[in-house]
Amino acid sequence: MQRRDGQLNQEIIINLPLEPHEVPTLRELVGWDGRHSDYPILFERCNFWAGLRDGKNELIAFGYIAGMGLQHGYMEDIIVHPQHQRKGIGQALVNKLLQEAERFGLEIVTLTYDSKHNTFYSDCGFVPCPGGLWRRKD
User: Fold this and answer.
1) Position 6 pLDDT exceeds 50
2) Are 128 and 120 in contact (CB under 8 A)?
3) 51 sits in which H/E element
4) What are the backbone dihedrals phi and psi of residue 101, each rounded to the nearest 5 degrees, phi first?
5) Is there a domain that residue 131 lies in?
6) Angle at CA 100, nearest 5°, toward 62 and 112?
7) Cβ contacts of residue 45 below 8 Å, gap of 6+?
8) Contact between 93 and 78 (Cβ < 8 Å)
9) Model confidence pLDDT, tens digit, residues 21-42
């Protein structure tokens, strides 16, 4: 949530306590597959996550960083509820995750994203670079 001065009313929390259904519900609200079977297993396997609740205590933002916890981490699932997008919450979420990555000792954080989000992630400090993607054949 945002105040008139552009600041968030509530704080983005690292490892915010979550119910297993909350992230899949938020994923579905932005048009993604809910991946219900991933939760709560994901919380046991990622390095850390961050979340934000609104005044009604509903989850409105979520993201996480996974990896071996050594030098490199992978940021994934940066999600902001459609009714709360374009208010600075996504950038605050990414920044909070990167601050935690630094505190955690990670030196490199990578992510993949649709090219339409180039400006957003560049503004968050990411440098676009080439990469590759492998998918299992069905």
Assistant:
1) no
2) no
3) strand 48-53
4) -60, -45
5) no
6) 55
7) 66
8) yes
9) 999 999 999 999 999 999 989 9
Residue type, 116: K
Place of tokens 């054949």: 137
* 85-119 pLDDT, tens digit each: 999 999 999 999 999 999 999 999 999 998 899 99
Q: For residues 125 and 119, is the Cβ–Cβ distance under 8 A?
A: no
> What's the CA gap between 17 and 32, in Å, rounded?
22
The CATH number of residue 116's host domain is 3.40.630.30
Q: Cβ(19)–Cβ(55) under 8 Å?
A: no
Q: Are strands 59-66 and 13-14 parallel, antiparallel or unpaired?
A: unpaired
Residue 105 region, left (φ>0) first, then alpha (ψ -120 to 50), else beta? left
Q: Containing domain of residue 46, as a range?
A: 13-123
Residue 132 pLDDT: 79
Q: Decide if 128 is inside a domain.
A: no
Look up residue 1 and give its two tokens.
């949530």
